[in-house]
């Protein structure tokens, strides 16, 4: 039978940070905090049964309060960049040069969420909820957002994101989970020995500001071809700048992504109802702060961001991220671990 523990985990400003941990007898557990509805720790056994943390996490609540790299955050209302921060006549915050990124500096990853927990025979769950308004987040329209983390006894972590528009105005909804994975356990080794496979035939061409140009490129004969299992380090040697790119995945083929680490024996399979996955290889991300007890460095983690394509509102024919008034939208990601 699984268990749920809740404890105080420091402060950010005057607000208490609460840590909720879901644990299963198989050695898996997930810890989340109410600041940013963030996943901060995920324990998964290796082939010997030793449970270790397979995501990158910061040291304490204060570090998360200062975080600008979205470690484990629920990024929203819209993930990725919006050109010029413009949506029709609406001007969003320009927090990435002249562009908008990841919901801005008041986005969901920087908000305190309410939460409830639930335990059933099948799974244990924490659900975070937030009233996203123009006053608090800066997006037009009022949106009731919910994010649930559900851990079952078979080794599957399901993250469900829901948005219900509560106004007469349209709003935008394209969130993601900004989790950095490292399956070696406690970030003992870089991700360059990880093996990646993707059900992806095309990637988006990006401009110098990492915005989609509108052109789709075939992966055949390029460093973006992960249709067969490929060692990340071999590809990064061919592409020294690494990856911060949009892979168009095939919804009819699940899982969409398989990531494995031979030394630990851990394997992650991702299935989602979204049309793209943004992969960020943390190349050249050499920073002074501590991650999993050591300085952040290049290739320490792989951010896997399932979402609709970035800047979709500026490209006709791409999946619609506009949420009409009084409408429910749901995004589901299933992370299944094997060892």
3D architecture notes:
This protein has two helices and 30 strands. It is mainly beta and 339 residues long. A hairpin with a 4-residue loop joins β23 and β24 (266-272). The model has no long low-confidence stretch (mean pLDDT 96).
| Strand arrangement, major sheet | 11-12-13-14-30-24-23-18-21
Strand content: over 45%
The separation of the N and C termini measures 20 Å
How many separate helices? 2
Backbone CA Rg: 19 Å
Helical content (DSSP H or I, runs of 4+): under 10%
Keywords:
2 helices, nine-stranded antiparallel beta sheet, globular, 4% helix, mainly beta
Question: In terms of topology, how is this protein built?
Answer:
Blueprint: E1 3-12, E2 15-23, E3 29-33, E4 38-45, E5 51-53, H1 61-65, E6 73-75, E7 81-82, E8 86-87, E9 90-91, E10 100-101, E11 114-119, E12 123-132, E13 143-152, E14 156-165, E15 171-172, E16 176-178, E17 180-181, E18 195-198, E19 200-206, E20 212-218, E21 230-231, H2 232-238, E22 244-249, E23 257-261, E24 266-272, E25 276-280, E26 290-291, E27 294-295, E28 302-307, E29 322-323, E30 328-338
Antiparallel strand pairs: 1-2, 2-3, 3-4, 4-5, 6-16, 7-10, 8-9, 11-12, 12-13, 13-14, 14-30, 15-29, 17-28, 18-21, 18-23, 19-20, 19-22, 22-25, 23-24, 24-30, 25-28, 26-27
